[in-house]
Amino acid sequence: MTTSKPLQVADIEELFREHNRLLVQLLTARLGSAQTAKDVAQEAYVKLLNLDEDRAVSHQRAYLFKVAQNLATDRLRQREKTRRGQAVELFDDEDEGADPLRSAAASQELRFLKAVLKELPPKCQRAFTLHRYQGLTFAEAAREMNLTERMIRIYVARALAYCQSRLDERTEASS
Amino acid sequence: MNKQLISQGRRDRLLETAADWVARIQDGELPAETIDAWREWLDASPDHRRAFEDVQALWQKMGDVPTLPVPPERDALRLDRYAGDERVRTWLSNMPRRRDVKHNAWAVAASVMLVVGVSLGGWLWSETHPAAQEVNYRTVTGQHLVVRLPDDSSLELGAASEVRVMYSKSERSIELLHGIAFFDVKENPERPFVVRAGGGSVTAVGTAFSVQRRADEVMVVVSDGLVEVERPSVAARGTVSDPQRQPDRVQLPAGQRVAYSAGRGLNLPTVTDVVAETAWRDGQLVFKDEALAKVIDDVNRYSRIPIRLGDDKVGDLRLTGYIVTSQVDGWLRGLESVLPVAVERQAGEIVLLHRDESPGTSPAN
């Protein structure tokens, strides 16, 4: 490779123009907030600029996505730590009292979703719960259930698709 | 909301794909080519994008579900046979038939004969239920299955594979019908553990090994202990003397592999990288100077769209590297830059064609 050179502001601007939309989309999907996604993307550009080592121009894009996704992972871990610290009562089968701040429609939808979770086949439900509510990675959930990571991912995806399909039905019926 | 302009059938199909993307994105860092595949899928149709955004929003909403249901009981988990190879809805619609089995051991034993791809507890093989001694396990493309056998041995079935388990008092017998399986065997000299495949057999006392059926041969890899491999003609015809004076059987220790076939008999055992050979259990296929024909054989057990070799010349190309089995699409996209092939998407399949590279036209680096 002969085209290595340190990253310039102009390079970052080009990366931004061509890839920022996709990057922010990806990060939003991962982090659940467009604002946090933009913050993380911003952080990634800064990190790239402050990098001393030379890097081939062709690798910049892959590197940008890698750096940004690493930063997102850090955020999620931090968030998970905070959440665990609060010791939420996760396994209470009683419905929580109504939250006055939450709209009636939204909390009804959540109750519906909770009921739908119970419809899932046991292993599917377990995999989804471990990943979504106990913050286990696919690898950790796989160890816990003695399955492969791929199976956990399949269970999580199947659970999501089913819940959305049940939501579709519900929306259809009420509209 | 007028999202239901598309049929519920199509919408449900899109939701499965969308949910798969959401799950992948949640799990962690995706390589650039997977991100590109994601974007391509999103951009292909507004319906795709809507499905993704809905499932994504659902993922966030689920985080607000106030309290969770009590986790499933251990028995419920053990008896659950949903292996993710069909939609949850399809599975649930067949539930009435399956629900009864929880309460009736005989019903379980009977349904085992009908339902494949199951995971069962050992008590089903009770000697008093001879009808329950034969069980088939099968996986579809891309699926893995870990089965705990009644004697505490375990088997892991790779994608698109099938075994028949037959346990008797004197022998633990497994037949590999196709694909690949890894066995972790509990030692019991009184009751040998025998895997039969393609006419030959592999006998273990207490050990861990994998057996794979390919188009014309069977490959045995030992990761722990020792197995005895018997070649086909002996197993099939008894102790008929052999003009080629090939050994009938060979003792294969950990760290070695051997292939046999009906035509060529038993090859010489060779030392191998067992970690690489069994990486499929962790979702990777590792190849060292392997013919592309064999590589594609393996990859096809994971590819949503079947891959075909355009001609024999392509099949003879050699490949070294590894493939993440959940990212076959990305791997295919990169293949053109590694080998002189053209990857073409045709109706319902992907075809690999030989790309001629005369010296004058190769790109200068």
Task: Please provide a written account of the structure.
- The complex is a heterodimer of chains A (175) and B (365).
- Chain A is mainly α and 175 residues long.
- Chain A has two domains: 4-85, Rna Polymerase Sigma Factor, Chain: A (Orthogonal Bundle), CATH 1.10.1740; 104-174, Orthogonal Bundle (Arc Repressor Mutant, subunit A), CATH 1.10.10.10.
- Chain A is 72% helix and 2% strand.
- A two-stranded antiparallel sheet of chain A has the order 1-2.
- In chain A, helix 1 (9-31) runs antiparallel to helix 2, helix 4 packs across helix 7 and helix 5 crosses helix 7.
- Chain A is elongated, with a radius of gyration of 21 Å.
- Mean pLDDT of chain A is 79; it is low at 87-100.
- By secondary structure, chain B is an alpha+beta fold.
- Among the domains of chain B are: 3-62, no CATH class; 283-361, Phage tail protein beta-alpha-beta fold (3-Layer(bab) Sandwich), CATH 3.55.50.
- Chain B contains twelve helices and 20 strands.
- In chain B, strands 2, 3, 6, 9, 10, 13, 14 and 15 form an eight-stranded antiparallel beta sheet that branches. In chain B, strands 1-4-5-7-8-11-12 form a seven-stranded mixed beta sheet.
- In chain B, a hairpin with a 2-residue loop joins strand 7 (193-197) and strand 8.
- The longest helix of chain B is centred in the first third of the chain and has 20 residues, at 8-27.
- The radius of gyration of chain B is 24 Å and the shape is globular.
- The model of chain B is unreliable at 96-132, 235-242 and 359-365 (pLDDT under 50).
- At the A-B interface, helix 1, helix 3, helix 4, helix 5 and helix 7 of A face helix 1, helix 2, helix 3 and helix 5 of B.
